[in-house]
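Protocol step 4 of 6.
Sequence for Acetyl-coenzyme A synthetase (Microcella alkalica) entered exactly as in the expression construct, tag removed. Do not edit the line below.
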Amino acid sequence: MSTTSIDSLLHEERRFAPDPDFTARAVAGPELYARAADDRLGFWADQARELHWHTPFTQTLDWSNPPFARWFHDGELNVAYNCLDRHVEAGNGDRVAIHWEGEPGDTRTITYSELTAEVKRAANMLAGLGVGQGDRVAIYLPMIPEAVISMLAVARLGAIHSVIFGGFSAESIRARVEDADAKLVITADGGWRKGKVFPLKHAVDAALAAAETDVTSVVVVRRGENDVDWQHGRDVWWHEAMSESSEEHEAQGFDAENPLFILYTSGTTGRPKGILHTSGGYLTQAAFTHRSVFDLKPETDIYWCTADVGWVTGHSYMVYGPLANGATQVMYEGTPDTPHPGRWWEIIQKYGVTIFYTAPTAIRSFMKAGREIPLAYDLSSLRVLGSVGEPINPEAWVWYREIIGGGKTPIVDTWWQTETGAIMISALPGVTTTKPGSAQVPIPGISIDVLDEDGTHVGMEAGGLLVVTEPWPSMLRGIWGDPERFQETYWSKFGTKYFAGDGAHLDADGDVWLLGRVDDVMNVSGHRLSTMEIESALVSHPIVAEAAVVGASDDTTGQAVVAFVILRSKKAKSVSATEASQQLRAHVAEQIGAIARPREIFVVAELPKTRSGKIMRRLLRDVAEGREIGDTTTLTDSTVITVITDTMR
Ligand code: 6R9
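Step 5 output, structure tokens:
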């Protein structure tokens, strides 16, 4: 990989050393790295022993049949007990577990005692409907406490949940319910989004009508109070079934490798992959990273992760990590700009949020809207900020720290995947001197490398493919029902090293700079260029709010750089689209080199994104190459594509 291609990122010279006061009180210290380097498995065993085991484990890792790992496998634990009962038994039952904020402004405060009682009741309700160990339960809910209660109730029974994002279609539900052969579905009448109730149950009805399925019950939470169709004998109101269920439920221990959940994620082919996670290793790494990466002090912190429960970030950093650690957190139902653009910042001010975890796409949209919106609120309670989901451009990183973090908070840019289950690469606050745009170092106990195509380590100041070289506790255990696809997707390229599918560059210090999915890496006249690096250059220009870059096929150069940009409304007021495009082509050439100069720049009003906020480059490539637009089922708003093509014409 050409080193000049990442010059713009690596010209990023800003460094932020930890504040000594922060370091003095930090949860994590450099000794964690030393301990893990000295005895990696012993380090993870120590972390696992922070949990409550019904039966202690004696073996940490069984890697005798790679890539099928077993962690702590002769131990037994109950995941829900670890997230609930043990905090109550330790005298922390009155601590708030969830400050829930509904979009219309209604609120609920739920303590650990109350959450434990609700989960016990829900476990009895599900058991009464026939759910037992190993059964699959699909959950299709808005961001309401019942989503958390349902997941924990399923976990408490040793059953397996499959959470389906509330924005997915009936067809997606059908495919997931069928693939996992779910027995029961938990949904709601509807939820609140953008000031309106959006119906949910009707999608489940349509999915089940079309599916070959053994689903015997649909439990329906009342939230939207919208009308629903009712199938007698199958449908059950949550509140009715709960009121008939006992609040007494003793948690049983299950094998550490008992499956905990399946979560579907898109792969290179059309069919989504059901990523399978199990119990002991997953909870160990989710809890450890949540504590050390966010510097969690459960007695005093108010933590908020804005992810939807339908994504892996919602699983690991809204449900399992924070609750295993006894944290107090905020959960918000709605969209960031309802009923006004300052809603998130108002919530931070209201609850005194101290730790905040969100995605670069959200940060960039706030940059676009203008700093005066967050600056109207008191955000001084914040002390740690996190980022996840895609590479964060240095400009967005610095804006995040300056505007949201008051110029003082450490930022942790956390790299991980649905497949890795928990954070793998991140700075540790109070320990790491941070570099805007770099996820930096593997967390203690994780071994990574950057390899070239033939599997050789690339060395410093070079780029290649990111791999994880040793098994880790929260690693996926497979793809549901498809062990061959599991082997083929992740373990066929570099043997027992896990192939992540991301490009990465190591700088002179050995720090990792993520360059996006390898399928987002372009090859222009034999030079490798990352979409991310050109986007970063574009966003560093004052008139640009957001940019997406794709490699479009080109007769002469193989691929050519094509960019789509959204301009900042104020700063770009007096510039025409043609002028903007000229200025920006010159700017990229100046920042990175002539090789990176976009062949075309399109000024657009919006960019197509998946529901999890990732830019759909595949669709942009279709547009850039003049093809018919492909499958848009996972788009938040398919009208965006029309907007883009119209703007271009
Ligand atoms: C947690 C999550 C995984 C893919 C991953 C990578 C990208 C996530 C990132 C990042 C650069 C970060 N990604 N975090 N890239 N820096 N801090 O997002 O899981 O939805 O499975 O996506 O997201 O490309 O391979 P998932």
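Step 6, annotate. The CA atoms of residues 195 and 339 lie 7 Å apart.
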